[in-house]
Specification:
two-stranded antiparallel sheet, 5 helices, about 35% strand
């Protein structure tokens, strides 16, 4: 099965000149969804992952499934003010401003092997912030995994020296 067949291109969304990669058709097909989770899980097992950390909100969809499938813990990285206990926080730059992500302070301990996961790798800002949260806790980034990578935006380079696995790589817009 070619997972690329389950990604819809939406031209001029969210603004003119952008081709949005819509992953929801993949979620609608049980076989495609299973294949994506299986492939991401294979990578996580190979990296000997103990935890999966994923960014709000689309990263949660596959990140939690991967964690459950490999017997790892799942750590949700949320926007500020969404978690009820003490948090570690990191800010990151977006093309239009600054955002932040938080995880519970007690979610990670030194030496834990963590998979950073998000649905899409574009410029790498969100994933780099997730790596920062993992490292701030003294844990190790075992790898970074994505369903879709927009290689032409250079996000992979921003994640160096971490290992990166993307199931679908788009070289041009």
């Amino acid at each position: 099965m070619n997972l690329r067949d389950y990604i819809a291109d939406i031209p001029d969304y969210p603004r003119e000149g952008i081709v949005f990669k819509d992953i929801t058709p993949l979620f609608l097909d049980p076989a495609a969804l299973r294949q994506a989770v299986d492939e991401l899980s294979d990578y996580a097992r190979m990296r000997e992952v103990e935890y999966v950390v994923s960014a709000e909100a689309r990263g949660f969809m596959l990140g939690g499934a991967v964690a459950a499938q490999i017997g790892a813990g799942f750590i949700p990285a949320r926007k500020p003010g969404k978690l009820p206990r003490e948090v570690n926080s990191v800010e990151y730059v977006l093309e239009y401003g600054v955002d932040a992500l938080e995880v519970h302070r007690d979610a990670l301990a030194g030496g834990a092997r963590v998979l950073v996961h998000d649905d899409l790798l574009a410029t790498g800002g969100t994933a780099r912030a997730l790596c920062g949260l993992v490292e701030q806790a003294g844990a190790d980034v075992a790898g970074c995994a994505f369903l879709v990578e927009l290689a032409f935006l250079g996000g992979r380079a921003r994640l160096a020296p971490h290992d990166v696995r993307s199931l679908l790589v788009y070289e041009a817009e």
